[in-house]
Amino acid sequence: MHKIYFRFYEEINDFLPKEKRKVRFTHNYTDRASVKDVIESLGVPHTEVDLILVNGKSVGFDYLINDGDDISVYPVFESLDITNVQHLRPKPLRNPKFIADVHLGRLVRYLRMMGFDVLYKNDFVDDGIVTLSLIETRAILTRDRGILKRSEVTHGYWIRSTKVKEQVIEVLKRFDLRNIIEEFSRCIKCNTMLKSISKSEIINELPPKVSKSHTEFSRCPACKKNYWKGTHYQRMLSFIQSVRDIEF
Asked: Domain locations in the chain?
């Protein structure tokens, strides 16, 4: 029986049992394995990890553990430049795009409301999510840890909370998005970017009260849904401002 020592940092401690969180602990093993396999055996998906130090030196996921190794594991640094050490992601998501699993429909609506590109269907299966994430360079948002442990997945995040506002805050913080919010620029229904349109072009599609009281409209070129600053607008704007004001 051999021993190695682990210390996990920041939010990746969420995947560990309480007695192993934010402390250095011993892990026993019999056969050598890659550091990636050992980390995932402890419950941490590799998509949550961006830097591994073994005895003070940066290593890749394929590093084979040795008896006595002292291993530090750090989360993805979306908002911090660590280019002088070894990133475990091919590149950070500077132009973030997402794909969400079937459990996150409400979160998707709020993220689209803030202008973020999020693919979603309520019948998505895991294989389809993974394939699209790779083809279109999208980070997977999920409540299922298992999908993030798949070896082909490169970017992803396990949503901790079940409350939608807390979920939004998690995503904004994790991917450093607060400063690139573009509210009401994207269709909440189908994810397409909206375009301005004159009232005269859509007047026959508008409720009479709306056509009398509003002059500015946007339209989705894909699903043809029309948008205006109705009673819901201030409520949605207040929500966006409330998450912008939170200290991360």
From this structure: 2-75, 97-180, 195-234
Q: What is the CATH number of domain 2-75?
A: 3.10.20.30
Residue 142's nearest CA partner among 133, 43, 80, 178 is: 133
DSSP 149: T
Query: pLDDT (tens digit, 9 = 90+) per residue, 178-188?
Result: 888 999 999 99
> What is the Cα–Cα distance from 138 to 117, expressed in whole angstroms?
9
Asked if residues 131 and 125 have their Cβ atoms less than 8 Å apart, the reply is no
SS3 for 164?
helix
Instruction: Give me the amino acid identity at 155.
Output: H
Q: Output the six-digit token pair for 126.
A: 């895991």
* pTM assigned to the model: 0.77
- What are the structure tokens assigned to 122, written together? 């309520």
